[in-house]
Amino acid sequence: xxxxxxxxxxxxxxxxxxxxxxxxxxxxxxxxxxxxxxxxxxxxxxxxxxxxxxxxxxxxxxxxxxxxxxxxxxxxxxxxxxxxxxxxxxxxxxxxxxxxxxxxxxxxxxxxxxxxxxxxxxxxxxxxxxxxxxxxxxxxxxxxxxxxxxxxxxxxxxxxxxxxxxxxxxxxxxxxxxxxxxxxxxxxxxxxxxxxxxxxxxxxxxxxxxxxxxxxxxxxxxxxxxxxxxxxxxxxxxxxxxxxxxxxxxxxxxxxxxxxxxxxxxxxxxxxxxxxxxxxxxxxxxxxxxxxxxxxxxxxxxxxxxxxxxxxxxxxxxxxxxxxxxxxxxxxxxxxxxxxxxxxxxxxxxxxxxxxxxxxxxxxxxxxxxxxxxxxxxxxxxxxxxxxxxxxxxxxxxxxxxxxxxxxxxx
Length: 411
What we know:
411 residues; alpha+beta; 3-stranded antiparallel β-sheet
């Protein structure tokens, strides 16, 4: 260490590798304070002396120059960050939070900011719109962060609410979570008003509860239409959705390793618990036995995912052909819960089969139902549905014959 005789608080430090740096050193609040001024190859002695005197004035005034330097860095970063587009920070947000999200939730966040223009290759929207629209948040998050304010969000909301109000509700919730994350992030705090999305839900139309559901007198027509489908994967999938009350993706992503035909159980993904075990009832076991075993997924498909991803077209064809009222794929899950009441199944049991989150203290902490108890009621529900649909049921004790087809066109 070498000290400057003219400026006692200025020194020159030389590292083992030969790098020289000017440093400022003094006593501050009874302790030694040392701070690097800069590389000696870029700072002249005169410049270093001037800077050392400036820092000495600060310490004499009771100001820690290290804190001042950090504050200047924050302000500099903030000035630069304001010009960054929200899309850049959105990607950082996804990378930081995705470990806590499910596959569907993560995909939603990517879809909300996609560019659009990509051709639609399959599904019901293929004929209606040949290309995908830009993500719902893409226009808003293309703006610099400095322009992401309540006024802009309100303009965006009003432009979208008349087109896709349901999607706007989801996007507004995601945007609010994103802004909250930024307000807690050291690099982005203060750049966007954390209350920018508050009370904007009042600009949305009232949320309508969906009530599409199969009535018991409609079961025969529905089953007749579904069973006519020559594709056993789609036919089996739709029937099992109704007979298990499972969520669409929970059943679609079920793998053969998750199916235990010895103990008549299956493990499926659950958005609440992660994994839940459900009984395999007699007719469902018969449907499973008829499925072609072509890959790891029970409902194998030639799609990129490897499992059935788009059953709506086939289902809507059944609804139209049989003259049934509107019924969504999720409506099959709603139908299971409703039809379970005809056999006076306890609400907690049907809810546990369906994977609903417990809604009472007793359910959360004082009900641990074995799979055999669930199977008892699940079999009753299945029998009631099949009786109403006039479908012959498997005889007890007779194992289903596995019919494996290798020449099936899987959708």
